[in-house]
Every structure is written in C-alpha cells, then in structure tokens.
Amino acid sequence: MAETTARRVRHAHRPTESERKNAAAALQRALDRRDNGGSTGH
C-alpha cells in the first residue's frame, strides 16, 4: 500500500521549467562544491 501511495505522490506535482532549472543549478553547485571546493575556489 505504501508503495502505490509513494508512486502516486511522486507524480502529483509537475515542476515548471524555471523550477527544474533552479533545481538543476542548485544540484550542480552542490556537486561542484563537493568535487573541487566550488567554482569560486573557496
């Protein structure tokens, strides 16, 4: 039962293009920080 509920909730919200871009940018910044100290070098 929990599995079907989780599957239904996951597709309930379709992100807009701007939301996807913001999420992708945030993810990339996090990955950059983890991999090489960040693009700014801090």
In short:
Residues 1-42 are annotated as: Disordered. With 42 residues, the protein is mainly α.
Notes on the protein architecture:
The chain is an all-alpha fold and 42 residues long. It has 2 helices and no strands. The chain has helices spanning 2-10, 17-36. The chain is elongated, with a radius of gyration of 16 Å. The chain starts with a helix and ends in a 6-residue tail after the last helix. 0% of the residues are buried.
Q: What is the mean predicted local confidence, pLDDT?
A: 76
Structural class: mainly alpha
**DSSP helical segment count:** 2
Overall, the morphology is elongated
Sketch the major β-sheet. Answer: none
Rounded to the nearest angstrom, the distance between the terminal CA atoms is 47 Å
Strand content: under 5%
| Order of secondary-structure elements | HH
Poorly predicted parts: none
Question: Helix content range of the residues, please?
Answer: 55-70%
Let me know the number of strands: 0
Q: What radius of gyration results from the CA coordinates?
A: 16 Å
